[in-house]
Specification:
The chain has about 350 residues and is an all-alpha fold. The chain contains 13 helices and no strands. Helix 2 crosses helix 12, helix 4 packs across helix 10 (about 240-260) and helix 12 packs antiparallel against helix 13.
């Protein structure tokens, strides 16, 4: 084979092999990467606690790490309690939502000139009657169990990674006798820590800001479960592009079921769209440009690729993984052109 084509062909084959390994090993890789991100968050919270005047400097590092774990655990418990409380509320308000939903369906039928007006009896016969509930309930329970196991595994990985962090620099030094290789490895690790840490900190701040502003809008309009939707909007903001769409879609569907009035639905939807527009067109580009220096097109492609490989977790992990790849590629001459293509402005 001509030397000119040997490298591209070898690279393509290697990419296919790596993609196949990532796909079949997703049950192993996803908890590890999520654990690493949780460890980043714990370290970031500990650093924030260190900046607290007077008290922060007096508290030992291990105590700060323990406090950061408690803060994160409290947040997770609060979210879990919020979800459980909303489940009870939904069950209590289900008859009201059923009537509102039927009204919307009947209005839609009239708009499209459907002769037979839908009722719950006909809808159950035509739709619900065709669904087998036992397999559906089994699938839901299995999903909940899988999520619980995933959370435990991720926390275990994060705990052990935090322990490994103490000896990480010593391991880099022991990896090679070549001082240039050691310096390069330290630089790559420092860049990854700096950029990913900055990205997570800024993205979390923006997500909290977006969730709070959305909660104010939804609470003012009287939308049920405004706090739950605000938390969901904040979490979905970590998913580029698609998260903004879903962050409006779910409250929109809730407003349709609750209000069944086009004017009230628009009054909820338009401010949420405006908030997503402002965040997506001003703050998010700032974050991507200054903290990660990633091309918007590269982010879109990575979102599609990692979502195809790992599903919903891949959508959340696409941006951090792509940023790490760009940093690693930039450290080697052979892969530096790929890092340039992934960058926002071509500068590394």
């Amino acid at each position: 084979m001509n030397d000119r084509f040997q490298s591209p062909v070898s690279g393509a084959i290697l990419a296919v092999v790596i993609g196949w390994v990532l796909f079949i090993g997703k049950d192993v890789f996803i908890p590890i990467i999520l654990g690493a991100l949780v460890a980043y968050v714990i370290v970031g919270v500990a650093r924030l606690l260190c900046r607290v005047p007077i008290v922060g400097q007096l508290v030992p590092p291990r105590i700060r790490s323990a406090l950061s774990v408690l803060v994160i655990a409290y947040g997770l418990v609060a979210i879990a309690n919020l979800i459980l409380a909303n489940v009870d509320s939904v069950m209590a308000l289900a008859p009201q939502y059923q009537e509102s939903l039927l009204t919307v369906i009947q209005r839609t039928a009239v708009f499209f000139h459907i002769e037979t007006e839908p009722t719950w009896t006909t809808l159950r016969r035509d739709l619900v009657g065709q669904i087998s509930m036992q397999p559906l309930i089994g699938t839901v329970l299995a999903s909940v169990s899988a999520i619980a196991v995933m959370v435990i595994v991720v926390l275990l990985y994060a705990s052990f990674l935090l322990i490994e962090l103490r000896s990480f620099d010593a391991k880099i030094v022991a990896m090679s006798n070549d001082q240039n290789s050691i310096a390069r490895a330290r630089k790559v690790a420092a860049d990854i820590n700096s950029r990913i840490g900055a990205y997570l900190a800024l993205k979390t701040f923006v997500s909290v800001l977006l969730g709070a502003a959305s909660w104010i809008v939804m609470a003012f309009m009287g939308l049920e479960f405004a706090a739950f939707w605000a938390v969901l909007i904040a979490l979905l903001n970590y998913v580029p592009y698609i998260g903004s769409f879903l962050g409006v879609l779910f409250p929109l569907l809730m407003s349709i079921v609750q209000f069944a009035n086009p004017n009230d639905v628009l009054a909820v939807m338009l401010p949420l769209v405006a908030l997503q527009f402002l965040i997506g067109n001003f703050l998010d580009p700032y974050i991507m440009g200054n903290s990660l220096n990633l091309s918007p097109f590269a982010i879109l492609v990575s979102l599609a690729a990692w979502s195809a490989l790992w599903g919903i977790p891949g959508a959340f992990l696409a941006v951090p993984i792509t940023a790490i790849m760009a940093i690693v590629f930039s450290a080697f001459e052979g892969t530096r052109p790929i890092a340039v293509l992934l960058s926002r402005d071509g500068r590394l």
